[in-house]
Structure formats: C-alpha cells, structure tokens
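Memo to structure team: turn this sequence into structure tokens by end of day. - J.P.
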Amino acid sequence: MSGGDVIDATGPTRTQVWLGRTARAASGLAVLGLTAAIVAGARLPDGTAGATVPPAQISVPPSVSTLVCAGPLIQPDDTGRGDSAFDPTPVDPVTTVTAVTSVPEDDGSSAGVVGPLDRSATTTTLDAGGDSAVVPGVAGPLVVRAEPGAAPARVAAASAGLVTAGDLRGLSAASCQQPTADAWLLGGATDLSSTAQLVLDNAGSTPAEITLELWGPSGPVDLTGERYLVAPGASRVVVLGGIAAEQRRLAVHVAATGGRVGVHVQDSAIDGFTPAGTDLVVPGAAPARRQVVPGVSVSASAVGDVTAAALRLLVPGSVGTTARVTLLGPGGVTELPGADEVVLVAGEVTDVPLGGLPAGAYTAVVDAGEPVLASAVVTRPGSVGELDDVPSVERAWAASTAVGRSGVVAVPAGALGTLVVGAVSGDADPSADGVATGSVRLLGADGVVLAERPLRLDAGTTGAWSVDDLASGTGGIVAPDPAVGPVPPATLAEVVGVDLVTDEGSSVALVWALVAAVDQPDGMLFSVLDPVPVPRLTADVAVREDPRLGTR
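Reply from structure team:
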C-alpha cells in the first residue's frame, strides 16, 4: 500500500445503504416477474389444458427366486487326536442338496441353476417346466436360483448332512432359505455339553455387515458390540460359545445391512461320550403375539424326562407376559398341565417340557400378551453303544412359521418323509369350529407330478401322513368323494418334493412341515423341514403420464 492511499474506517453512509437495498429489491422483483411471464406463456399440448390424465396399470414382473443352502457340518477341532476309541468323528458326514421346482400350470417357468455362493460355476441346472436335481458330496454352501414365468417360481431345496456315528451323529437337514436382512433363531446352547456355531452365508454381490443380539436363561447377553463383515460369495462362522459362554438355552437375532444372508446355527450336544443330537437351527417367525410351530412329532416319554421334547419361548422386549400354549393333536386339543398360564420374564429364554404327551404329531400354538418367539425341540431315543452308559439321543429343532401360506418342501435324498399338517383357527381359540382345505401335489424326479391329493382338516387338529403312502394312494388324507370316485394311485417313484396349495378365504388356515427320517440300526435319525413359501405377486402399479412431457 502506497503512502498516498487512505482507508475510510467510517464505512458507507446511511443513504448509500438504503440505495443498495432498494436496487437489490428491484432486481429481485424483476426476476420474479420474468419467471411468472415464462410460466404464463408455457403451453400444454393441444387438447390437454386442464385435463386429468387417467392412470395406467403397469404389471410388475416377478423376480428371480434365490435360496441359500447350508454347507457341510462343521467338525470338531479335536478330530483325530487322543484315543481312537473316542474319535469324535469316526465317519465323515455325507452331505447332499436336493432341489425341486413345481409349475402347477406348466407355464414354462422355474428354469434355474444350482451353484456355489460366489457364482463361479454351475453345479447343475433345472429345466423349465418343473425339474429336480440331487447334488451329492457337497463341499460348501450352494445357491439355487429359479427364473419366474407368469408367476413366481415354485422352488424348494434342502441341505442334509447325515452322520451315523460320533459326536455329530444325526440327520442335520433344513430347507434352503431365502436370504434375509433380519433373522430370529431360537435354539441351541453353549454349556459344557453343547456346541453352537452361527453360520452366515452371503450369496449377494455386496458385503453384508452383521450385528447380533443374544439371550440366555438369565436374560440378554452382554456383547461387546462387535460387527461381523461377510464378503460377497463368502461364509463366516461365529462360535457362539466364544461370545456367550455357559448358556443352557439360547436365542439369536441377526440383523444385516448392505446385503442379505442365509443364516443357521449348527447345534450339537453330547452326554459324556454319548451323542445327544445334532441339528440345524433355522430362522423362525419374527416376534408376534401368536406363534405357531408345526411338525412337533414326539415319541412316548414320561413326565420329567430330561431328554423329552420341549417348547422354547422368549419375550425379546422389555415387558414380560403370560403365554397360553395350545397343543393341537390328531384328536383335537391335547391338555398339557401348566400350559394354560406360562409366566415369561422379559429377556429370559424359557423351556416348557412336553414329557408325558402321547406319541404323535402336534401343532403348538402360543398366544401371549406381548410379542414372543417360539420353537420346539423334538427327540428320538437310540440304543446304547459299546462304549456308552446311556442310550444315544437324536433331536431336531422345529421353527415357528407363517400360517396359511402355500409352499414347497424338498425331501432330502435317501430320507423318508412324513407330512404333518395342522389346522389353526384365526379366532382367539385356535381350535374354534371350522375346516381348512387345500391340495397336496407330490413331485417326482424331473418335476413329474406323481399325484395330487385333496386336503381337508378340521380346526384344532393335526394330521400326519407318509409321503410314500400318499404317492401310492394307500394313505388318503380325505375320505373319497362319492361323486368323484377313489383317488387313483400314483406311478411308483421316489418323491423328491411336496407342494401344498392352501385354499384362502376361510377363518381356519393350514400350517405344515415335513419330518424327514433315516432309519439306522441304532435308532431313527430325523429333522423337521419348513416349506419354502411361494413369493406373492407384486400388485400392479398405477402410473400417470404427465401431459407437459408430451410432444405435438
């Protein structure tokens, strides 16, 4: 700055300030006037001035159906160490995946592929119009993708791990599941005799960030807030005993952001050196005031038997409640002492023993004043081994599921299937008068429909039928209609899938599961499989054309 420069520290005068403000206001008014002129001069296309354009209904096509199948069982870390007589894995697991598609109207849909999580290869294909495939020697998680036709694909798959001896003895089978961002799993334990491992499979193209909540018999488990990242096309195993040790009863909530995952817990137990069952715990229904658990197929047991079946319950919220348990059996409601009023403390996982029930298949209905979770563990006694002091036990977890949904379930290769169906009234009393109806389609190799059977079930009852008997015509699920005549037997062939279509509009709805079993010399091995729900068609979307975007 030169010596002749002078800085005026007094600022502009009052007159200069007002002149500036007046100029800016005049400029703003000029801009507004110009905008109004442009809008006023705009023209709508001829014949559309002031007219209302009616909306057009645009159909939303169904999307590809994706199912994630669990991989082989995770074996104990101490395999091959110590006394060979006590080898925890004397035989290797035999793991298979069975996939099946069903097309009621043969519209050419449901063509699909089966392959690994990362989509790096195609293991096998499913032809359009209905097909099936069995993948033996599975080495990792698989994904089934089925293309839709005019309707969503009716597709199901099941992963099954069979172990005939050792700590993991059992049939660990589960239906492959649609990837989810929110999963509730009620089952398993982490005490000294149990092992629980959470498996996360990401079949998507983006990473999934996982957060966990856990509950035990004493309430919520205090976790460190750690998040687990699962890369696209990859799996991650979380050893629950490492973050929630010494929990005799366990519940897990999995929340995913960024992607959707397949989720299950591998649960296994031993009694000393005697296997006490291994199975896969899969997600059940989200917390609700009514939960329904199908496929509770129990064997004879005594009251107080610690190895008997049990119903597991949890109030995940902050307010406790009282629950009423209703067991729907073959002849209607079966009384269970103490089940009319089960006190549930918020956050505490509770088991309700089912010992003393007559052998048979049941549907458990849980009604509570607050949203609850429910599942069931069912058992089968085995024989006493050469090195055992007590008989082995096989057990399976049954998850709660939606009522009244059509679905498909795949029968694991080499297993016998039993269809278990319950009829639940929508009233406060689940056994209120009424009838539920539907139809059962039995699917054979290459998607062939072996037979279709009508289903009629009184409210408040549960029926169980051998799948093979239904296919051969010797196990009718309704009395023959005299006007129609006897139901013809199906062509004898292995049943690989069951497709159940429920009739809507009734106050009584069907809920069902498949009990898959493999008979062994030392006892029956079994699992309970939920049906894979058929995606609902998306409603048409109303789209209105903006006439200002038209052209002349």
